[in-house]
Design a protein that fits this description.
By secondary structure, this protein is an alpha/beta fold. Helix content is about 50%, strand content about 10%. It folds into three domains: about 210 residues, 3-Layer(aba) Sandwich (Rossmann fold), CATH 3.40.50.300; about 100 residues, no CATH class; about 100 residues, no CATH class.
Length: about 475
């Protein structure tokens, strides 16, 4: 301990003499920020774990002729959102911010996909925290083809050793590691233990970090291999429902359609009220206690309940702010972003569900097909397999209409309420639907049987390999050793 105290005092004296000396890390950051100012997108997002580092960098940046802001856990929410809005402004705007200095806590709930350059001024030893930082800009809505991740480290420090010998090997800066939380948690614990062990030499520390990286890289690769095998052998998928919806493409998932669906629901529970829920707008909906209670009941009945929304509906007075515009929702905490999986959208969809076989007359102006009256039927088909899929199938007696029916219906408005489909037209639609359905069913059954046979063969091959390993093990164990 005496030697340790002497070393601490020596470090303290060295630190006290740093005032006014050049700072190579700050010089690198200054160069990054300066170079970025020549681009149209001049924004730079800088992360540091420590507040005093953020304020130190703020003091330095004040002399760089740029506009800078600091966000950390102690900054009020209103200020955080204000800084984000200003950070998003184009550099020609006099109120814009060029450089944002942040802690992880300060950016919770805020996304910066309009920025394409991130600087790690210090490196967290927890790879998941690194991923969270990168995820602030490398996310849905990022317009740049690539994002720049710049790590500033000082050679010869334990931070640099961990970065070079461990974090780079794991690949945290180049690929998503989201499925390896347990492995990365163990890695973080072991990194801390190695770094804090004052009894080992620098050479031993480097070797232990290298061995740790080797072991954890192997574990991550093994996990990914098993996940790949799971999909190939068993036909299972690790995709979430939300990720599948996010990747879906349909006329009926566009903002105006989702907004119209929710608007219809609220205008039903609020008779006589007009809800101005339009793309690019935030609709303000005020509810009395009875209507709020009804909506809470609908949430529990149709969407499995939602604690956060039900808590909001118990406030007095109840005011909901709704939008389908992600940018508007990102700027304000209390705005509900209505996407395909939002509870209000699920409730509105159930509320709008039709019973029986409804008919409607619709009118659409389009040059996709010649003018005329066309009978169209809409059927929902569910294909049962390892992952069930539901699709809408449009049937028409005119092939040209059938090919673009989804587009035409998405643009349609109410037509003549007195118009009706003739019985002969209905019979022809049903006959065509039956032919198409039988063809699709036969194709699906053929594909499903082939996929099932392939999975069975793969499972048998895997079983045979494992049996060979098991059978060899007793033979090796029985071999006498000299």
């Amino acid at each position: 301990m005496d030697e340790l105290r002497k070393e601490i005092r020596t470090i303290g004296r060295l630190a006290s003499g740093l005032e006014g000396l050049p700072d190579p890390k700050v010089d690198v950051l200054h160069q990054v920020v300066t170079d970025k100012q020549s681009e149209d997108n001049n924004k730079v997002l800088v992360f540091s774990t420590f507040r005093h580092t953020l304020h130190y960098l703020e003091d330095q940046a004040r002399g760089w002729d740029i506009r800078v802001a600091v966000v950390h856990g102690a900054v009020p929410d209103n200020d955080r959102h204000s800084f984000r809005r200003r950070f998003k402004l184009p550099k020609t705007n006099p109120d814009a911010i060029d450089l944002m200095l942040c802690s992880e806590v300060g950016t919770e709930g805020l996304d910066y996909q309009f920025c394409n350059t991130l600087v790690n001024y210090d490196i967290p030893w927890n790879p998941m925290r690194i991923e969270q930082r990168i995820g602030r800009i490398d996310r849905r809505g990022q317009l740049s083809e690539s994002v720049g991740i710049i790590n500033i480290l000082t050679h010869g420090t334990i931070e640099a050793e961990i970065y070079e010998r461990c974090l780079l090997r794991i690949g945290v800066f180049h690929r998503a590691l989201g499925g390896s939380e347990k492995i990365l948690g163990d890695l973080t614990t072991e990194l801390r233990r190695i770094a804090d062990d004052l009894t080992i030499s620098e050479t031993d520390r480097q070797e232990r970090l290298r061995q740790l990286a080797d072991n954890e890289v192997a574990r991550v690769e093994e996990l990914e291999r098993l996940e790949d095998q799971q999909g190939a052998l068993l036909g299972l998928t690790t995709e979430s429902f939300e990720s599948r919806v996010a990747e879906a493409s349909s006329e009926w998932l566009e903002d105006d359609k989702i907004g119209g669906l929710v608007r219809s629901y609220f205008e039903t529970v609020l008779p006589g009220r007009r809800i101005s829920l339009r793309p690019g707008k935030v609709a303000v909906v005020r509810l009395d206690d009875d209507v709020a209670a009804q909506i809470s009941d609908d949430l529990r009945a149709y969407a499995g309940g939602d604690v956060r929304l039900e808590r909001k509906l118990r406030r007095t007075p109840v005011t909901l702010r709704l939008t389908t515009d992600a940018e508007l929702a990102a700027n304000e905490d209390d705005v509900e972003l209505l996407g395909a999986t939002h509870p209000f959208v699920l409730v509105a969809a159930e509320h709008a569900a039709l019973s029986g076989v409804p008919t409607a007359s619709l009118r659409v102006r389009s040059d996709l097909v010649p003018p005329g009256r066309y009978p169209v039927a809409v059927h929902s088909w569910t294909r049962f397999d390892a992952r069930d899929t539901l699709t809408l199938r449009y049937i028409s007696t005119d092939p040209s209409v059938e090919a673009v029916a989804d587009v035409l219906l998405a643009m349609a408005v109410d037509g003549d309420p007195q118009a009706a489909m003739g019985s002969r037209q209905g019979e022809l639609l049903e006959q065509r639907h039956h032919v198409e359905w039988e063809l699709a069913r036969d194709n699906h059954v053929t594909r499903a049987k082939a996929a099932g046979a392939q999975r069975v063969a793969s499972l048998r091959a895997q079983r045979d390999r494992q049996l060979r390993v098991v059978r060899r093990t007793p033979a090796r164990s029985a071999t006498p050793r000299s």
